[in-house]
Amino acid sequence: MVVDNIARTQTERDLTSIPTIPQSERIAPISGAAVVDVQDFSAYYGAFRALDGVSMQIAEKKITALIGPSGCGKSTLLRCINRMNDLVDGFRAEGRLTYHGQDLYDKGVDVVEVRRRIGMVFQKPNPFPKSIYENIAFGPKVNGIKGNMAEIVEHALRQAALWDEVKDKLQQSGLALSGGQQQRLCIARALAVQPDVILMDEPCSALDPIATLKIEDLMRELAKEYTIVIVTHNMQQAARVADYTAFLMMRQDRAGELVEFRDTDALFTRPRDKRTEDYITGRFG
Ligand SMILES: Nc1ncnc2c1ncn2[C@@H]1O[C@H](COP(=O)(O)OP(=O)(O)O)[C@@H](O)[C@H]1O
Ligand SMILES: [Mg+2]
How far apart, in whole angstroms, are the C-alpha atoms of residue 243 and residue 221? Predict the structure, then answer.
């Protein structure tokens, strides 16, 4: 019996023991201020651990990309940053995730306010089945944001580089726009409630290359004022737009872990971990 146990432990160790260098060499600190600080953070869906012990920081007014193979927990991590996973039955988090120093998972945190400050843009553009104007005005109205609504709408549409294309048809349905325009409408909608951080989950994966480049240009522009976190399965996109890149991977037990995190250029040109190197050179994933 004892021998059996030892044998099994040995096998498990062989299967999971990928030689890695210490975390301190794989997870580099950011250079400026951190808006979000993730410390030894794990996430569970019921008994399933989707993320294990992630530690990283999100730099202020920079773009941080989360990359890695499908199922490694990129969306889970992103959705933890504005507590979107609370909507999933059986979801549970461990560790610390702070926003400007405040633990987002503390009791008493106002989740509605969290989601206003930390906005989200999804993979598939999802305008409301309402006019372009109403798509933007809805959030500020609900959140009691004061000011001239027509000006708020125009400002958000200008910020999202959409104003010139829609200014003459604000009463038309948001759903009548092209895919790329719809996605910029969703970005404008997120901006209209005056957020601080914008989370984007594969925002270009449903778009053609031209619409994709427009969104990437827009992201670079927005990063002057906002902190952006983007999930992308497109490594070229991460290399083009992100200041920092986090590479996540699934372990044998399917828990996602953060393999490497550093500034984008360093991660793509001088990866420290063999697994990062294998992934960015296309050996798996
Ligand atoms: N709502 C959910 N309920 C249960 N399991 C989930 C849920 N969402 C994601 N998962 C699981 O968590 C893991 C990570 O998923 P996800 O964060 O979507 O990965 P990625 O975005 O990197 O593809 C996967 O194994 C996935 O099946
Ligand atoms: Mg995902």
Answer: 13
Backbone angles phi, psi at 80, to 5 degrees: -70, -25
Q: Is the CB of residue 135 below 6 angstroms from any atom belonging to ligand 1?
A: no
Q: What is the DSSP track for 18-29?
A: -----HHHHBPP
Q: Is there a contact between 180 and 186 (Cβ–Cβ < 8 Å)? A: no
Q: Which helix (H) or strand (E) holds 95?
A: strand 91-99
Q: Which CATH number belongs to the domain containing residue 86 in this structure? A: 3.40.50.300
- Both tokens of 224, joined, read 């002057």
pTM above 0.85, yes or no: yes
Neighbours of ion ligand 2 (CB under 5 A): 75
Assign 125 to helix, strand or coil.
coil
Beta strands 244-250 and 256-263, pairing class = antiparallel
- What is the overall mean pLDDT for the chain? 92
d(CA 138, CA 153): 10
Q: What is the pLDDT of residues 46-56, one digit of tens each?
A: 999 999 999 99
**Cα gap 112→76, rounded to integer Å:** 19
- Cβ of residue 232 lying under 6 Å from some atom of ligand 1: no
Determine whether the shortest distance from the Cβ of 84 to ligand 1 is under 6 A: no
- Considering its fold, how many domains does the chain have in total? 1
In a domain? residue 11: no
- Ligand 1 atom, smallest distance to 73 CA: 17
User: Ligand 1 atom 24: the closest Cα is on which residue?
Assistant: 71
Please report whether residue 251 resides in a domain.
yes
